[in-house]
């Protein structure tokens, strides 16, 4: 998994090993999975890895899969809150997915929970993808390009 970050652009299910459970893609959805503790010492490095992925994908939604994160430290949460504000200014929404009870408790005791609300926090990736499809339709990557260019 290398340094705590797995990138998956528009994947319906995060890749946990070398094989994907599903490979449906959805235009406008970027799923990033973090693994391991997120704390002040690695938060900036994680941000530096995520920002180019977000800039390249130009998604409507970044779904941050935290199911592999056992602990989210306050400084890292503060950085996440600031990043959410910046991305929102660019029209990109941050969704949190798969929070374990400890991470959920930390998020619920922060200002981020007020910003995200329940509508941008999801129990698992399937629910996040369903919400994405419900809001922007189920256009899969490739179909949108075909429709645009009459292919």
Explain this structure to me?
- There is one protein chain.
- The chain is α/β, with parallel strands linked by helices.
- The protein has a single domain (5-149), classed as Transcription Regulator spoIIAA, CATH 3.30.750.24.
- 44% of the residues lie in helices and 22% in strands.
- α1 packs parallel to α2.
- It is globular.
- Mean pLDDT is 78; it is low at 1-23 and 141-151.
Task: Give a nutshell description of this structure.
By secondary structure, this protein is of the alpha/beta class.
Keywords for this entry:
151 residues; alpha/beta; Transcription Regulator spoIIAA; five-stranded mixed sheet; 6 helices; disordered N terminus; disordered C terminus
Question: Which sheet architecture does the biggest sheet show?
Answer: 5 strands, mixed
Tell me the number of helical segments per DSSP (H or I, 4 or more residues long): 6
- Please list the strands of the largest sheet in the order they lie side by side: 1-2-3-4-5
How many angstroms does the end-to-end distance come to? 37 Å
Low-confidence spans: pLDDT under 50, at least 5 residues?
A: 1-23, 141-151
Radius of gyration: 15 Å
N-to-C SSE series? EEHEHEHHEHH
Overall structural class, as computed from helix and strand content, comes to: alpha/beta
CATH superfamily, please? Answer: STAS domain
List how many beta strands DSSP finds.
Answer: 5
């Amino acid at each position: 998994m290398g340094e705590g970050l797995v990138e998956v652009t528009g994947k319906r299910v995060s890749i946990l090993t070398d094989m994907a459970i599903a490979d449906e893609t959805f235009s406008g959805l970027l799923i990033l999975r973090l693994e391991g503790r997120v704390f002040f010492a690695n938060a900036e490095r994680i941000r530096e890895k995520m920002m180019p992925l977000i800039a390249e994908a130009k998604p409507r939604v970044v779904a941050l899969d935290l199911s592999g994160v056992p602990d989210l430290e306050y400084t890292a949460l503060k950085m996440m809150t600031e990043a959410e504000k910046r991305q929102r200014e660019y029209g990109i929404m941050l969704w949190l997915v798969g929070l374990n009870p400890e991470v959920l408790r930390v998020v619920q005791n922060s200002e981020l929970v007020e910003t995200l609300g329940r509508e941008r926090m999801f129990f698992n990736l399937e629910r996040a993808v369903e919400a994405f499809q419900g809001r922007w339709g189920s256009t899969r990557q490739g179909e949108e390009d075909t429709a645009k260019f009459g292919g």
